[in-house]
């Protein structure tokens, strides 16, 4: 099967007053259609740059990003994005926030269809009854749920998430992992998740990619190989523990600290 | 209860202020030609009521016209400064410098360029003195828009205009209205500056001037109170607009 996302030999540097700052160095990532790809790596290794490249918000200095067999050179409507900050618009209700992408992508879609689609998603993530509230009236976890709905309301092929659960407490985060798993079962999208949380990467990912320190390249790929309908308990099985161990070691290598006692 | 509090509290504050004023004048035994007291005002209004209506209207419409220009120009300038770093770097010193000039010094300049155009001069001064806060606040509002807000629409291929219309503009509205409240009072100062300084002026400023010429202190103070009243009126008009267009920014109080 062809890869839906294909990142080939991408190299990128930011121009700073102190000279070029290389962030990505010959990065290669391939994600088959429908797969969930979790990307982990040390802080500041260029993970967010990766999301902006896949979204077409910027172009790499060298290398190519392909989506659906087409080279990405500008933003495209088949992509959905979610960030650590839910960036909901305070002057819109939760429902109107979720509808926003449809106003851009499907301007002719009847109002009723938009509302139905948004309400179905809100119900799926447990926000039924909150659609008329303002973002500031919701908790952080609920805002992030609404943000996820907005990211997929226009049925994108690719969902790109940049540490979407990073600012949440542990229990809320685990709730959202399960919401994410359920959304995946209901909506077919290919997913790239940038995260700092190794447990999150193993629970959600089909493959986990470890990036090296800056400039980042692919250091290690872990095929998770757990069934799609995982439960949180799976994280306490020996297989998962082994995988977390391997990832932990890989992160230490990426940080350049593999020799240290820990 | 809520309404009574909203109207009653400011009203009580005003009455207390007037009582204090009356008391100070009475305590010092100041005569009418030294300092007017609130009790002198009703006769002054009764005597010049017709003049207050026509002059008050002239001051009001010219202030609102100047303010309208300030909103248009200030918003445009703010957009330019908000979207372009170069424009921001280039324009800020100019704007701050211009704002530091006492506007009274510009009255003779304008009067000479636009001789006899009293209405135009007055509107122009109201505009010149009041566009600055609007330009700065819109500029800051737009330039501090977090990139993620732009990215949620940009990643869908939305045009710059769409992003401005759906995200940047509404997000800047609370700052805009904050600045507009400052600009309202500034615009009145601009209008009155021209009305008082220019010979054969019109409006409440001219009425103040004629009170001064005739040593009619009650009239002068009656004009000041009328100006204050118009200022409050316009201020609450802005508050009403803010409720309609940016009411979402008001968080419920706990």
TrEMBL record, chain A:
ATP-binding found in the keyword field: yes
Positions of transmembrane segments: none
Domain of life of the organism encoding this protein: Bacteria
PROSITE patterns in the cross-refs: ABC_TRANSPORTER_1, ABC_TRANSPORTER_2
Gene Ontology MF term list: ATP binding; ATP hydrolysis activity
Family from the record: Belongs to the ABC transporter superfamily.
Protein name per Swiss-Prot or TrEMBL: NitT/TauT family transport system ATP-binding protein
Source species of the chain: Cereibacter azotoformans
Lineage: Bacteria, Pseudomonadati, Pseudomonadota, Alphaproteobacteria, Rhodobacterales
UniProtKB/TrEMBL annotation, chain B:
Localization, UniProt: Cell membrane
CDD domains hit by this protein: TM_PBP2
Origin superkingdom: Bacteria
Transmembrane segments: 7-27, 60-80, 92-116, 122-145, 176-197, 217-241
GO biological process: transmembrane transport
UniProt key word RNA-binding: no
PROSITE patterns: ABC_TM1 (PS50928)
Membrane disposition: Multi-pass membrane protein
Family affiliation: Belongs to the binding-protein-dependent transport system permease family.
PANTHER family given in the database record: ABC TRANSPORTER PERMEASE PROTEIN, ALKANE SULFONATE ABC TRANSPORTER-RELATED, MEMBRANE SUBUNIT
Protein name: NitT/TauT family transport system permease protein
Organism: Cereibacter azotoformans
């Amino acid at each position: 099967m062809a890869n839906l996302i294909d990142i080939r030999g991408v190299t990128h540097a930011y121009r700073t007053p102190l000279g070029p700052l290389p962030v990505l160095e010959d990065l290669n990532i391939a994600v088959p259609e429908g797969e969930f790809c979790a990307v982990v790596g040390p802080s500041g290794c260029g993970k967010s740059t990766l999301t902006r490249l896949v979204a077409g918000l910027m172009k790499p200095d060298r290398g190519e990003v392909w989506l659906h067999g087409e080279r990405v050179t500008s933003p495209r409507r088949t992509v959905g994005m979610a960030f650590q900050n839910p960036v909901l618009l305070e002057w819109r209700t939760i429902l109107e926030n979720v509808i926003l992408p449809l106003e851009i992508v499907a301007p002719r879609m009847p109002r009723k269809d938009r509302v139905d689609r948004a309400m179905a998603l809100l119900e799926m993530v447990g926000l039924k009854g909150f659609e008329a509230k303002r973002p500031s009236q919701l908790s952080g976890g609920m805002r992030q749920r609404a943000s996820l709905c907005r990211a997929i309301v226009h049925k994108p092929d690719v969902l790109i998430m940049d540490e979407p659960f990073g600012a949440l407490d542990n229990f809320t985060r685990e709730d959202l992992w399960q919401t994410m798993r359920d959304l995946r079962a209901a909506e077919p999208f290919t997913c790239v998740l940038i995260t700092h949380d190794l447990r999150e990467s193993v629970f959600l990912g089909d493959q986990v990619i470890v990036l090296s320190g800056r400039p980042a390249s692919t250091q290690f790929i872990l095929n998770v190989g757990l069934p799609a309908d995982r439960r949180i308990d799976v994280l306490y099985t020996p297989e998962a523990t082994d995988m977390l161990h391997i990832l932990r070691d890989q992160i230490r290598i990426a940080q350049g600290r593999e020799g240290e006692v820990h | 209860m809520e309404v009574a509090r909203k109207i009653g509290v400011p009203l009580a504050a005003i009455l207390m202020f007037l009582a204090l004023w009356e008391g100070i004048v009475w305590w010092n035994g100041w005569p009418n030609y030294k300092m007017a007291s609130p009790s002198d005002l009703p006769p002054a209004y009764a005597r010049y009521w017709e003049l207050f209506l026509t002059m008050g209207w002239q001051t009001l419409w010219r202030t609102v016209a100047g303010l309208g220009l300030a909103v248009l120009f200030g918003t445009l300038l703010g957009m330019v400064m908000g979207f372009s770093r170069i424009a921001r770097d280039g324009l800020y010193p100019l704007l701050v410098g211009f704002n530091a000039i006492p506007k009274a010094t510009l009255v003779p300049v304008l009067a000479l360029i636009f001789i006899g155009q009293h209405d135009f001069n007055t509107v122009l001064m109201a505009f010149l003195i009041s566009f600055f806060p609007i330009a700065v606040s819109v500029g800051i509002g737009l330039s501090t828009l977090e990139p993620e807000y732009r990215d949620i629409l940009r990643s869908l291929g939305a045009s710059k205009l769409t992003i401005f219309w759906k995200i940047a503009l509404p997000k800047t509205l609370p700052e805009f209205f904050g600045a507009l409240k400052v600009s309202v009072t500034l615009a009145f100062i601009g209008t009155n500056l021209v009305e008082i300084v220019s010979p054969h002026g019109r409006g409440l400023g001219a009425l103040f001037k004629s009170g001064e010429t005739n040593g009619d202190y009650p009239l002068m103070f009656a004009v000041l109170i009328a100006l204050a009243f118009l200022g409050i009126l316009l201020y609450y008009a802005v508050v009403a607009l803010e409720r309609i267009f940016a009411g979402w920014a008001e968080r419920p109080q706990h």
